[in-house]
Write a structure and sequence with these properties.
With 313 residues, this protein is an alpha/beta fold. The protein has helices at 5-27, 134-200, 202-228, 231-254, 257-264, 266-288, 300-312, and strands at residues 37-43, 54-57, 60-70, 77-83, 94-99, 106-111, 125-130. Among the domains are: 1-33; 34-131; 266-304, no CATH class. A seven-stranded mixed β-barrel has the order 1-4-3-2-6-5-7.
Length: 313
């Protein structure tokens, strides 16, 4: 019986699909004719690990990651792995999470411990461990360098600040020197002007110094004359005069002598007051009746009669 073309085509398609599945499983480390073991491990953090990632021993792929999920009632991560059934390593083996490459993500490497008495079986849980990846190693190597670079940048910043301060100081110094130059120039101009004035008035200055010399000689002569004078006698006379004045003042204050009585005797004061009052009354009466005190007549008799009449009145 001849097969039709459609049956042949379908057969070839089925065989191709089976070969593809077999090859894909083989590349993934899974055999279609053998039953794999399901084992577990637990990690605190699995960033970069995905389902389907490979499981290896010494670089050889022996299985893959089947499932990644939380351990019940915790935040720890439970990893479900499928490995080849013929592997007989011990459950004490370590499942090490490592970085497969810069862009290869992460995978699990089993560090096998072989024990003929105890062999791993489905449902066992391996001890977990972490292996620093290339990125972590680079970070650890770069961290000291980064600190050094930061310190260098800080030092450079301080250096730039110092340089800026120095530049500012230099600028200020330039301004100071410029001002000093201007001041020096003005001082030079003033010196030249002063020299010209001195030259123009040289004769007057000479005369002034000559006069000053003569004045000094005269002052010296006066000083010598004063020093030769008998100052002690004059001072003694002045002291005696002061003592005499003190005695006179003391006498006056004690009430002795004419001046003392004038100053201290109240009777004399009262008499003088009474005499002054009487004199004032006399002057007042004289102004009121001048004829009582002044008589002027060509005939003396008439004057007497008039005086007697005024007295009778």
């Amino acid at each position: 019986m001849k097969l039709s073309r459609e049956i042949k085509t379908a057969f070839l398609v089925i065989v191709g699909v089976l070969l593809f599945i077999f090859g894909f499983s083989f590349l993934k480390g899974k055999s279609l004719f053998e039953k794999d073991k399901i084992i577990y491990t637990v990690y605190e953090e699995v960033e970069g690990l995905v389902e389907g990632a490979k499981v290896t021993i010494n670089g050889l792929v022996i299985g893959k990651i089947m499932k990644i999920d939380f351990l019940p009632n915790t935040t720890r991560i439970l990893i479900t792995m499928s490995v080849r059934s013929e592997l007989d390593f011990s459950p004490q083996s370590e499942a090490i999470l490592y970085e497969a490459g810069l862009i290869g993500g992460k995978a699990i490497q089993i560090d096998p411990v072989f024990d003929s008495k105890i062999k791993v079986k489905s449902g066992d849980t391996l001890v977990s461990a972490l292996k620093p990846g290339l990125t972590e190693l680079i970070n650890k190597q770069i961290e000291p360098l980064q600190l050094k670079i930061e310190n260098m940048l800080t030092s450079a910043d301080s250096l730039f600040i110092g340089v800026g301060n120095i530049l500012g100081l230099v600028q200020n110094l330039k301004s100071i020197l410029k001002n000093l130059s201007l001041s020096t120039s003005k001082i030079n101009d003033a010196s030249i002007s002063l020299i010209n004035i001195l030259k123009k008035n040289q004769s007057n200055i000479d005369i002034t110094f000559e006069n000053f010399a003569e004045t000094s000689d005269n002052l010296k002569t006066i000083t010598d004359s004063i020093s030769q004078a008998n100052l002690a006698v004059a001072i003694n006379k002045f002291i005696n005069t002061i003592e005499s004045l003190d005695g006179i003042v003391a006498t006056i204050e004690s009430g002795n002598g004419t001046m003392g009585k004038l100053v201290k005797d109240e009777t004399l004061y009262q008499n003088l007051s009474q005499a002054s009052k009487e004199l004032e009354d006399l002057l007042s009466d004289l102004k009121s009746h001048p004829k009582r005190y002044v008589h002027f007549s060509l005939f003396g008799k008439k004057g007497k009669e008039e005086k007697s009449k005024e007295n009778n009145k």
